[in-house]
């Protein structure tokens, strides 16, 4: 009987609306208050059809509270606005067979402070009977009315918001509002109760009502937390609105969602490759794949270009890459330099000799993954002995772009060669981040002429107390050990001890560089090799590049 009566209510109930020309609040002045615990009843009617058993009442909500309505048999309630500035319906609370109780239906709804109109009805064959109780809020983030952006409820980010009302209203919309203070990675997580036809749509818009590609359909059978947001968007600081919408009648939908927002560090290096996003050469960018990302760069002359993509669990996530040379006039003439390269480790790295033109890198996943974090770089590689396969190409190219590294005259970098003391001080002297304070006068060294370029290079390091030399010599042509480099870097950059770190197996507490090595490790500059630091090993040019790049 319940479904049939509910259909009748839909057909005839709306004909009982308050006169649109008469403010609803004035109309309510002539209606009786419905008090907590009071049971409203009406006898059956002699009429055989139509919703002719009805009554109008009003309730006064003194403070935001949870209202629990008990509707006997086929009783139905329509909650209406009580303000003269707003007229119309807020929500329907109806008898429902899905509550598994043939005698009554219990509805919960959290109401904001204010005056509300109540329209109560039933079929002519049945008497209506209804009552309600008031209690404390279950959640401060779900309050009716919230049917529009103007009524949106302010919610925090990274907090699960749960629906409280049990209404099975056909076209139910709820609005929420959240604020971002910094650029953030945003996605929607959510779920609904596992009930037939249970489906809720969730979307995000900004103050200008621009819709973001973050919409989600929460469907029955998708369980939290496995049902994580599949689309990630970069949202700038501002106010945003979340709206939920349903078109199915389901008692107690139990939807819940979370606006997961992660602040973006250095947002200027974060890119969304939505539509051929331009990138600069020799710059590392960060991104998140939730669909294909496209990045483009243009060459004015032929160059050797190294493309490096790093992503944790890249192989497991099915990360793949394409490189296309674009034809600006005819897309059918695009040339695929690489097509569907699949990651076989956490890193994709390829080097190409490219002609002038526009090129697009396309990143994607062969699996349905909710999120793949990655970094991407396209390098103009000037050294003949460096390719993107070099494990430290990113650090080498970063320092090259900052003109700290210049390589040899023959166009090589010689990454595996041991670095000399002279080369270390020369590269450090090019770092504009270093500012030295003179604490002592310069002295002479037996192996460095005072009118030489080398003498000018080492002077600020000696005057700042960073280097001392050995037995009157500087030995600039000699290689440098890892322990010696640790001391130089800690003193040059004035590093201090950060979070505690474990000792290295091969560095005793009596080692002269023990504290320098610990400080270097605590700042994340060195991680060692399987618990060892190898303090006496000579530093190679590529390893020095890694140390120095991490100092930036």
Helix content: 10-25%
Assign an overall shape: elongated
Rg value: 35 Å
Beta content: 25-35%
* Class derived from helix and strand content: alpha+beta
- How many strands in all? 27
What's the arrangement of strands in the largest beta sheet? Answer: 1-3-8-5-6
| Mean pLDDT reading | 85
Poorly predicted regions are: 1-24, 46-53
Characterization of this structure:
- The chain contains eight helices and 27 strands.
- The chain has 552 residues and is of the alpha+beta class.
- It has a five-stranded mixed β-sheet with strand order 1-3-8-5-6.
- A hairpin with an 8-residue loop joins strand 23 (319-326) and strand 24 (335-342).
Which helices and strands appear, and what pairs or packs with what?
Layout: H1 2-12, H2 24-28, E1 32-33, E2 40-42, E3 53-61, E4 65-72, E5 76-81, E6 89-94, E7 104-111, E8 114-122, E9 128-135, E10 153-154, E11 160-162, E12 173-180, E13 184-191, E14 199-206, E15 216-219, E16 233-235, E17 238-245, E18 256-263, E19 277-278, E20 285-289, E21 293-299, E22 303-310, E23 319-326, E24 335-342, E25 347-354, E26 357-365, E27 372-380, H3 393-401, H4 421-429, H5 453-463, H6 482-492, H7 514-522, H8 541-551
Parallel strand pairs: 1-3, 10-12, 19-21
Antiparallel strand pairs: 2-9, 3-8, 4-7, 4-9, 5-6, 5-8, 11-18, 12-17, 13-16, 13-18, 14-15, 14-17, 20-27, 21-26, 22-25, 22-27, 23-24, 23-26
Helix pairs in contact: 3-8, 4-5, 6-7
């Amino acid at each position: 009987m319940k479904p049939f009566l509910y259909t009748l209510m839909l057909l005839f109930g709306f004909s009982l609306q308050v006169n649109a020309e008469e403010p609803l609040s004035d109309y309510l002045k002539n209606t009786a208050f419905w008090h907590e615990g009071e049971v409203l009843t009406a006898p059956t009617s002699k009429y055989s059809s139509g919703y002719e058993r009805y009554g109008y009442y009003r309730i006064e909500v003194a403070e935001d509270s949870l209202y629990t309505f008990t509707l006997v048999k086929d009783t139905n309630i329509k909650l209406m606005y009580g303000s003269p500035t707003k007229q119309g319906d807020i929500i329907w609370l109806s008898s429902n067979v899905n509550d598994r109780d043939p005698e009554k239906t219990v509805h919960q709804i959290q109401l904001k402070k204010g005056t509300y109109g109540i329209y109560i009805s039933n079929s002519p064959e049945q008497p209506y009977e209804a009552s309600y109780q008031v209690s404390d809020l279950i959640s401060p983030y779900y309050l009716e009315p919230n049917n529009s952006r103007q009524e949106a409820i302010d919610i925090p980010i990274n907090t699960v918001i749960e629906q409280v009302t049990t209404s099975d209203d056909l076209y139910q919309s709820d609005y929420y509002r959240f604020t971002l203070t910094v650029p953030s990675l945003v996605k929607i997580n959510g779920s609904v109760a596992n009930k037939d036809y249970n489906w809720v749509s969730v979307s995000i818009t900004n103050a200008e009502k621009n819709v973001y590609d973050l919409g989600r359909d929460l469907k029955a059978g998708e369980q939290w937390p496995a049902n994580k947001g599949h689309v990630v968007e970069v949202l700038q600081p501002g106010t945003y609105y979340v709206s939920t919408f349903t078109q199915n009648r389901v008692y107690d939908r139990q939807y819940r969602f979370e606006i997961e927002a992660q602040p973006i560090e250095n947002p200027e290096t974060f890119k969304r490759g939505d539509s051929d996003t331009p990138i600069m050469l020799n710059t590392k960018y960060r991104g998140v794949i939730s669909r294909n990302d496209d990045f483009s760069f243009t060459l004015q002359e032929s160059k050797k270009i190294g493309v490096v993509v790093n992503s944790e669990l890249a192989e497991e996530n099915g990360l793949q890459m394409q490189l296309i040379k674009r034809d600006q006039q005819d897309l059918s003439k695009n040339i695929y330099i690489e097509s569907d390269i699949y990651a076989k480790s956490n890193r994709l790295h390829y080097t190409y000799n490219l002609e002038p033109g526009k090129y697009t890198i396309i990143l994607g996943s062969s699996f349905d993954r909710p999120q793949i974090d990655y970094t991407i770089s396209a390098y103009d590689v000037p050294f003949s002995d460096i390719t993107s396969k070099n494990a430290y190409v990113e650090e080498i190219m970063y320092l090259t772009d900052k003109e700290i590294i210049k390589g040899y005259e023959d166009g090589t970098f010689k990454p595996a060669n041991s670095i000399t003391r002279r080369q270390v001080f020369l590269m450090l002297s090019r770092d504009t981040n270093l500012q030295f304070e003179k604490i002592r006068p310069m002295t002479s060294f037996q192996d460095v002429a005072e009118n030489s370029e080398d003498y000018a290079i080492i002077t600020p390091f000696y005057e700042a107390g960073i280097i001392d030399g050995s037995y009157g010599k500087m030995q600039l042509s000699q290689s440098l050990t890892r322990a010696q480099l640790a001391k130089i870097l800690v003193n040059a950059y004035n590093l201090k001890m950060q979070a505690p770190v474990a000792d290295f197996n091969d560095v005793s507490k009596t080692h002269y560089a023990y504290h320098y090595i610990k400080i270097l490790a605590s700042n994340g500059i060195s991680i060692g090799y399987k618990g060892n630091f190898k303090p006496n090993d000579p530093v190679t040019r590529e390893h020095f590049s890694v140390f120095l790049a991490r100092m930036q």
